[in-house]
Amino acid sequence: MRILLKTLFIILFLSHSEVFSKSSEEYIELEHQVLAPNYNPLPVVLQRGKGVWLWDVEGKKYLDMMSAYSAVSHGHANERILRALRQQANRLNVTSRAYCNDQLSPMMEKLCQLSGMDRGLPMNTGAEAVETAIKAARRWGHHVKGIPENKAEIIVAKNNFHGRTTTIISFSSSKKNRDGFGPFTPGFVSVPFGNIHALRAAITPNTAAVILEPIQGEAGIQLPPKGYLKKVQKLCRKNNVLFILDEVQSGLGRTGKMFAFQHYCQKPDGLILGKALGGGVLPVSAFLGTEELMTVFTPGSHGSTFGGNALAAAVAHEALKVLEEEFLPERSAKLGGYLLKELQKIDSPVIKGVHGIGLWIGIDVNTDIISARELIERLMDRGLLTKETHDKTIRIAPPLTITHDELDYGIQIIKDVLEEIELQVML
Ligand code: PLP
To answer: What span, in angstroms and rounded, lies between the C-alpha atoms of 158 and 171?
Structure first.
């Protein structure tokens, strides 16, 4: 009897320990059973992350060269951010904005100081911050510019990506993003990114704003043509149109400056931020703008239960301090320049082109030889995590904390895999 009880105890103990945790295949199978199939993830099941490294449930180590689309710019489990998270979690977390808390306004003051904006409105996800920008622009158009009610128009760029809400996909040019989700929100005019003549022609007396990503991320890290954003800004000023930039992905150091606009033009009238603002641990986003724009909001006109909660604000504040004090934008400029040069030096028939800025680089793949998806799966097998976009470009965006040696390690894997493919093609 005692032996039986002991055996039962051991089985019970082991079944709750790592020894009996599921395999990658089992987790993937479970995901197929219980999750809506709105993603097609790489077949890797991650369990742990530290700095630029990730480990799967079998303990295999990967170099993260994607950093959750820039959300993990500070690296996984950044010590300073985790400390701020723990300290604040023990003190105060969520109270809603029915009350003030002692974390939100100091964080927003810091964000305003860094961006040159006057005021900010905190939200959670990037899409919510984009929605906030749209509401601000429309209300400014109707209340300040004098556009007749419900007539405000917003100009956007083709191939944009601003998120997934019904209003945002209303101005997406991606069929995949829109199919079956209509009816769509009216009031948006789409012009080709980089074409100043098309944009000029699209402006009417009812245009309230132009909303652009300064660099189109999802479209394959497409940089704006020289002088484009400066000309757009000038055109906006001349026509009393708001110039709003979505820096959810490009902002907070990714491109080698704190904000991508600093490469190209003066500060915009409105700035949308997210991803890295959460320090890689929480969803935190914000819409910032000029005094005139932000004060169109009145009590009750907009909000979010979780937006601006004390925990999120403390984490975002620390995330901003880490970026500034540890010179992460400068690091991104230096290491990104090196990465770009090294990748451009690779002579492979698989590569059609390499482009980017800071630690944000797109590799265009010759899909006659291999699809971008197949290539990232090959890289994954060798311990490097990246992500394809539009099946022809591979996105390289490691945490900004990456070291030179870690970067070299990643570059070598890319070279090895490309060589392997080339050899196979030649055979
Ligand atoms: N805007 C841009 C430029 C983005 O890249 C994204 C997400 O990739 C979003 C908005 C939406 O952010 P979220 O996924 O947090 O809603």
So the answer is: 8
Under DSSP, is residue 271 helix (H, G, I), strand (E, B) or coil?
A: strand
Contacts 24+ apart (CB under 8 A), 95-103: 95/309, 95/310, 96/305, 96/309, 97/303, 97/304, 97/307, 97/308, 101/308, 101/309, 101/310, 101/313, 102/310, 103/310, 103/311, 103/313, 103/314, 103/317
- Indicate if 188 belongs to the active site: no
| H/E segment holding residue 70 | helix 67-70
In this predicted structure, the answer to whether residue 3 has a pLDDT above a threshold of 70 is no
The residue whose CA is least distant from atom 2 of ligand 1 is 162
Q: Is the CB of 163 under 6 A from ligand 1?
A: yes
- pLDDT(17) > 90: no
pLDDT at 427 (0 to 100): 73
Helix (H) or strand (E) holding 417: helix 404-426
Nearest CA to ligand 1 atom 10: 162
CA gap 153, 138 in Å, rounded: 8
Which among 64, 246, 269, 364 is annotated as catalytic?
246
CB 240 within 8 A of CB 271: no
Res 123: pLDDT:
98
Closest Cα to atom 7 of ligand 1 = 163
Per-residue model confidence as pLDDT tens digits over 155-202: 999 999 999 999 999 999 999 999 999 999 999 999 999 999 999 999
Q: How confident is the model at residue 391 (pLDDT cuts 50, 70, 90)?
A: confident
* Residues in CB range of 151: below 8 A, 6 or more apart: 142, 206
With beta carbons less than 8 A apart as the criterion, state whether 263 and 257 touch.
yes
CA dihedral over 225, 230, 233, 237, signed as positive or negative = negative
408 in catalytic set: no
d(CA 172, CA 117): 27
pLDDT band at 1 (very low <50, low <70, confident <90, very high): low
413 Cα–ligand 1 center, Å: 29
132-157 confidence digits (pLDDT tens): 999 999 999 999 999 999 999 999 99
Q: What is the pLDDT of residue 404?
A: 98
Quote the CA–CA distance of 339 and 73 in Å, as a whole number: 16
Q: How far apart are CA 147 and CA 136, in angstroms?
A: 14
Backbone angles phi, psi at 221, to 5 degrees: 55, 60
Task: Describe the crossing of helices 328-345 and 310-325 by its angle, rounded to 10 degrees.
Answer: 60
